[in-house]
Amino acid sequence: MIQNRQFRAASLIVQLGNAVTYYRNLKMEHIGLTSVQSDALIAALRNPGITAARLKEQLQLSQSTVAGILSRLEGKGLIEKKADQEDARKAILTPTDQGLALEMPLKEIALETQQSLVEGMSEAEQEEFIRLLDIALENMNRVRQAQPSGGR
User: By the 8 A CB rule, do 122 and 33 touch?
Assistant: First the structure.
């Protein structure tokens, strides 16, 4: 019989991911974005001219999911999507002035989220927590990349 403790880490990580997504969605409600939409906008803010394909890789989402997110962000006037002049198959993403105006509120929400996440941890525990999360994510990315579809 499989014991519950064997599933504890994975279960806690799933619960943590859900809790963080819920928190971020709640905090972003007033600016009209979801957690994943903000991730896409932040990527465009950090990397003006990022392609949709690169965004798909960075967010580790399917092409159809990214297309829907970009459509909603474009509809809200937060990004512009243009065809690459060298390769019309590539979509180039650029934040609009309205998207640029959300940079500071998004940074504040990210900081609040991180502070809530590590509340009660010492500096050393915070560093160790992040180090362990990096290892776990790297492990899962390796598993994902080993799949025939490359993870998506």
Answer: no
